[in-house]
Write a structure and sequence with these properties.
Blueprint (H helix, E strand, L loop, with lengths): L1 H21 L5 E5 L12 E10 L2 E9 L5 E8 L2 E8 L6 E8 L2 E8 L2 E10 L5 E9 L5 E10 L1
Antiparallel strand pairs: 1-2, 1-10, 2-3, 3-4, 4-5, 5-6, 6-7, 7-8, 8-9, 9-10
Length: 154
């Protein structure tokens, strides 16, 4: 009887955890919708973004192209708590922080050697089928560059 109760409790915990993460509207695979986006020429493009639960954190894997069209791949694992977590594969940043503002909005900051290199905001659509990422950074010439990327849930 104890084994059966323990198994039932463990199963309930796993189902509860799965439902909790399944309900997170940020998780999933997102594909860039270039027609709806406003991208500056010569800047990198994140073509596909995959957000997945890893324990109590989120792993974000981004595949895209740099300003010259060469493939890029970055990975970040962290929490939406505003703290800096390491990022790999991004020559412009060694940490990223993401802070949940409300159920449909995240703020993000990228840093290189402790200096902010990019700020942005991710806003989910009301139906959860798309999200818009607005980003601001300074280019190599010192000019402020802004972009708006729209992603569709896959």
């Amino acid at each position: 009887m104890k084994v059966r109760t323990a198994a039932l409790l463990l199963g309930t915990l796993f189902v509860g955890a799965a439902l909790c993460f399944a309900a997170d509207p940020y998780l999933g695979t997102w594909k860039l919708n270039e027609a709806r986006s406003k991208l500056s020429p010569g800047l990198p493009k994140n073509l596909t973004v995959v957000d997945e639960a890893v324990g109590d954190s989120v792993r974000v894997t981004v595949d895209g192209v740099d300003g010259q069209g060469k493939p890029t791949h970055t990975e970040w694992t962290g929490k939406f708590d505003g703290e800096d977590y390491p990022v790999t594969g991004d020559p412009r940043a060694d940490t990223r922080s993401v802070k949940k503002i409300d159920d449909g909005t995240l703020d993000l900051t990228a840093k290189k050697d402790g200096k902010v290199t990019m700020t942005g905001r991710i806003v989910l659509s009301a139906d959860g089928k798309s999200r818009t990422v607005t980003a601001s950074r300074t280019d190599a010439a010192g000019k402020k560059v802004e972009s708006t990327s729209v992603y569709d849930r896959q």
